Amino acid sequence: MPTAALSVPGGGPPSPASPAGEPARQPAPVRGQPAPVRGQPPRHLADLDPAERRAAAEELGQHGFRADQLSRHYFGRLTDDPAAMTDLPAGARAELAAALLPRLLTAERELACDQGMTRKTLWRAADGAYVESVLMRYPDRVTMCVSSQAGCGMGCPFCATGQAGLTRNLSAAEIVAQVVAGARALAGGAVPGGPGRISNVVFMGMGEPLANYSRVVAAVRRLADPVPGGLGISRRGITVSTVGLVPAIERLASEGASVRLAVSLHAPDDELRDELVPVNRRWKVAEVLAAAWAYAGLTGRRVSIEYALIRDINDQAWRADALAALLAGQPAHVNLIPLNPTPGSRWTASRPRDMREFEARLAVRGIPVSVRDTRGTQIDGACGQLAASGRAHG
Ligand code: SAH
Ligand code: SF4
After folding, report:
1. Residue with CA at minimum distance from ligand 1 atom 1
2. Exposed/middle/buried for residue 322 (C-beta within 10 Å: 0-12, 13-18, 19+)
3. pTM value?
4. Which of 74, 77, 88, 201 stands 20 to 30 A from 178 (CA)?
């Protein structure tokens, strides 16, 4: 399988790679066509709440309720094709769809593995930016892993996305569009196992969701609101994964987002975390965990602690004990993830016996812990990475 073509091999989350495996950048202009201009995407109804959508329809000289009809098509029937919108006057369809349902993402490439149960899509946005999403079907649920930014500015040295830096924030509608596409594939029977629905969404693709706060929160609203406001996915099934931007975690808590929180810790001590997760220089382990426990207290849901096991870097027995001491008695569940090595990196995944030892040391102290097996490793490391991220959030 031409696996490495989709992204930088290994080093998930999904990498900002072009199909040629190069970092995301402005595509070469096609002869006769202007080069795409990097910038914010066009407005889409999924950027707007229902009242704003009605106002937008009225600005076009249409009845406000036309916006609800459009929303039912997009979120309920999962279509943005004006020809299918037979309840709208023929003359108004194209104009409404052009104004409120512009095509935001084009599937550049799709790869499947696990007998079609894992499907990864490389998307090209209107300005040429690349992002990735992954759909993972399990017997009891379907999880979509989505990107919140093209690239990421957090600079974690073990992460392929971090290496390339931030291209731009995605709009709320660009985030939602990844889920709508997955929902459409499922509803249409394109995923083996018969027609289905998305039950879970994890913000574990490219980007730091809390660095794109307002758009991510708007996207969560669209995902959770029932049709025609949005897709009607339970907030319990939505997980935002963060590197630990403390004020944003506090804001998410105070605004009652009610989504699940995952914190990418990767080290129990500030000395190592300063290196693995550079934003730790700003918000230390103790501050990040205090914000996480406060969040758990408000939502009544355990926080996932993500820990990528890196051979001889953060996988020592004493670090397992230190992590256990930090988490004892707290509403946490640890997800241990074997590192997906990034190309050229000296770091690699921990030895199996070290992983087992690390896990056992947490378990014996009563800390809920799982080692994620990876799905989709055939498609490439990033997919495996994402698949891993989806596993623990059922
Ligand atoms: N920026 C957010 C969410 C996207 S990253 C965050 O960092 O939490 C999703 C998860 O993949 C994070 O837990 C991140 O630490 C992890 N990850 C990134 N690169 C990885 C790699 N090479 N191997 C294993 N896990 C990785
Ligand atoms: Fe990668 Fe770190 Fe950005 Fe998460 S925060 S996507 S791990 S660079």
Report:
1. 208
2. middle
3. 0.89
4. 88
Q: What is the pLDDT of residues 6-65, one digit of tens each?
A: 333 334 444 433 333 333 333 343 444 444 446 789 999 999 999 999 999 999 999 999
Residue identifier of the C-alpha nearest atom 10 of ligand 1:
204
Residues annotated as part of the active site: 132, 383
Ligand nearest to the CA of 384: 1
